[in-house]
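ok so for the tutorial part 2 we go from a plain amino acid sequence to predicted structure tokens. step 1 is just haveing the sequence, like this:
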Amino acid sequence: MESVQQELPGMTEGAKSSLEELESGLDRIRAAPADIGRVEMIVCRPAVGKRRILEEGELTLAEGLRGDSWKIRGSSSTPDGSAHPEMQLNLMNVRVIERVAGYRQAWPLAGDQFLVDFDLSKANVPPGTRLALGSAVIEVTAQPHLGCQKFQNRFGKDAVRFVNSAVGKQLNMRGINAKVVTPGVVRTGDTIRKVLFSTQSRD
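step 2 — the prediction. this is what the tokens look like for a chain of 203 residues:
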């Protein structure tokens, strides 16, 4: 079963907490599980400004999350504006978004397809690390994922300062980019776990 949400009044922004309020959640964020976590929400973006919350999602080599607009929306990071192959999927620590958004209904506004209770820090999942989600396997890429103007509009200036701070970058609080290496199905409540740890430097 799935439900569809659009960015309508009441769903266009989060709590816009102060930096002090956001930083009070750092201990909880740091305590996210490092080896085996949980998929808390799957968000498909069928078009700009739309969100579809999925109970089950299919990951494919060609599309990333089936039904998502990653491939058709393209990227400013490629010479020809085509979809960036290293930015197929976005994952964000659910402990960060629950602090930034303030309420669950606003979580999908972040635009990340997978909100997970898992340590996504540079130390725990450097580029090249492979993660199993349900029956699929994805690989963390080196493409940075930082707070932008849209993120600021939805969650406030202090939210951007929070996730883009030195600590925020170290913990990858805005999230990580990844690509599919083994197609499969992911369901809400599935585990997320490391199946291959990369020793690549993140300096």
